[in-house]
């Protein structure tokens, strides 16, 4: 299904953002680069990527028999929420410059990167395969159309964030 293929492509971009987050966290200096990578993770990973999952894919899976309060969809939703709370913690810690807050930021960044890394593996290797098998016929066409509509209204979001991430990667070399 094109929708899950697009989500897996976005995972590659998110993984690059996670590597950048860990690199910046290791350096331990608060600054505009950290703000940029947190913006990428909250706006692209959560606001763009997770939004498509939560508003389009997961409801379609629920209609196909996967409950949202138990099972794989529930786990993914819970992990999205955990990720949001870790982003909030990192934002809070990044505003302060002390050894304690730098250490707390590193810890939160490591937790977030581990969470999302495992989350991406679960989606790529289990959830999306389940979705591809369960969502068929007219429902699949509806999901594809909703993804296309979402992308047409927010397609520049991916391009802008990809460019920002590339700029961050170049500046960190």
Describe the structure.
- There is one protein chain.
- This protein has a single domain, classed as Four Helix Bundle (Hemerythrin (Met), subunit A) (Up-down Bundle).
- It starts with a helix and ends with a helix.
- Helices cover 88% and strands 0% of the residues.
- The model has no long low-confidence stretch (mean pLDDT 92).
- With 173 residues, it is mainly alpha-helical.
- It has helices at 2-27, 32-63, 72-94, 99-134, 137-172.
Order of helices and strands: HHHHH
SS-based structural class?
Answer: mainly alpha
The tally of structural domains comes to: 1
Would you tell me the overall average pLDDT? 92
Gyration radius from CA atoms, angstroms: 17 Å
Strand-residue proportion: under 5%
The counted number of beta strands is 0
> What is the CATH architecture assignment?
Up-down Bundle
Q: Percent helix among the residues?
A: over 70%
- Main sheet: strands, sense, barrel: none
Name the CATH superfamily assignment: nmb1532 protein domain like
The best one-word shape is globular
What fold name stands as the CATH topology?
Four Helix Bundle (Hemerythrin (Met), subunit A)
* Separate helix tally: 5
Identify low-pLDDT runs: none
Distance between the termini: 37 Å
At the first level of CATH, what is the class? Answer: Mainly Alpha
Keywords:
single chain, 173 residues, mainly alpha, Four Helix Bundle (Hemerythrin (Met), subunit A)
Task: Give a brief rundown of this model.
The chain has helices spanning 2-27, 32-63, 72-94, 99-134, 137-172. With 173 residues, it is mostly helical. It has one domain: Four Helix Bundle (Hemerythrin (Met), subunit A), CATH 1.20.120.520.
């Amino acid at each position: 299904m094109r929708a899950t293929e697009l989500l897996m492509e976005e995972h590659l971009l998110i993984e690059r953002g996670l590597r950048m987050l860990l690199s910046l966290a290791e350096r331990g200096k608060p600054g505009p680069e950290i703000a940029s990578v947190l913006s990428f993770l909250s706006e692209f990973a959560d606001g763009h990527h997770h939004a498509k999952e939560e508003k389009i894919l997961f409801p379609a899976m629920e209609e196909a028999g996967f409950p949202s309060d138990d099972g794989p969809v529930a786990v993914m939703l819970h992990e999205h929420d955990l990720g949001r709370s870790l982003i909030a913690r990192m934002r809070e810690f990044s505003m302060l410059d002390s050894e304690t807050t730098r250490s707390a930021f590193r810890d939160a960044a490591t937790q977030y990167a581990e969470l999302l890394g495992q989350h991406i593996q679960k989606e790529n290797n289990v959830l999306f395969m389940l979705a591809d098998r369960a969502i068929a016929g007219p429902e699949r066409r509806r999901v594809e159309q909703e993804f296309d509509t979402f992308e047409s209204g927010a397609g520049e979001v991916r391009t802008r964030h990809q460019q920002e991430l590339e700029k961050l990667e170049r500046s960190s070399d």
